[in-house]
Amino acid sequence: MIAACRVLVEIDERGSVTRAASALDVAQSVASRRILALENHLGSPLLERNARRAVLTPFGRDLVPSARRLVRLADELELDAERARLRPITIAVPESCTTRDLAVADAAGRAAGLRFEFVAASPVRRAELTRTLGVRVAVAAVPVDEAHWVARLGAAGRRPADRVLRLDGLRPRRGKGSGRDEDAGSRIRISPEDDLPHVRDTLTRAGYAAGLAPGQLPVDGSTTASLAGVLTDGDLLLCTEAEAGDLGLHWRPIAGLDIARGFALAGDSDHDVESVLQAIGEEIAGALGATTRGPATPREEAANA
Hints:
With 305 residues, this protein is α/β, with parallel strands linked by helices. Helices cover 47% and strands 16% of the residues.
């Protein structure tokens, strides 16, 4: 109907079907069929046809104002649709994602015809933004068995180390020559990204089983505070290998402990979630320092060590 109304409006303005078809860049036969279809739909002729030319009937002239309004609204709808397509999809991501990694994801999205706007936030804030529709999509922190991506966690410090970290090596002991892992600091700091039950509690249970004191597993209010503790006191930071590299720290796995961050894409629209996964799923995994596999098993870990 909209296409036929465009023809009707052009006939009124230009005085013939031929000129209307030319203005719309369609064949004259196409324009004629559209008018005929509209006549059949409305139940009355729109054109007076004779050997020389076709002009609008009184019925057709009466419909021109409404047809013009319909065409104008259709044009506005198409313009709004184009604006909506150009509006970026907002994605809440972990604060550990680097500017370069997010730029790579953005570039991949543009190649796929999508634009993204990234909002760095803590896990709690990302969940809140998802609930309140503050963003269209969020990289949610979830247990590994619910995850799209998994990032293995270990301990990173300011000093290089060539062996896996043993938690019992951090256990406070009396006297000299205790054999404590002195190059590892005395605490493993937990940043907001890992202040979640499925990560924090796993490390805490393992630490207590190894004889660590509660104060040796502090939870910080920001990654900046955690990093300051590492640089000032020689502590360790629970993080991914990629994050350690970005922070200029030396990373190693924790012996006997499979612990990882799990991430899943969440949003109010399944279409948005699928679009993001298809367009930049691999790039998001890179920004997270993650893979689609779970953490290494103890046997794999021993083989790697």
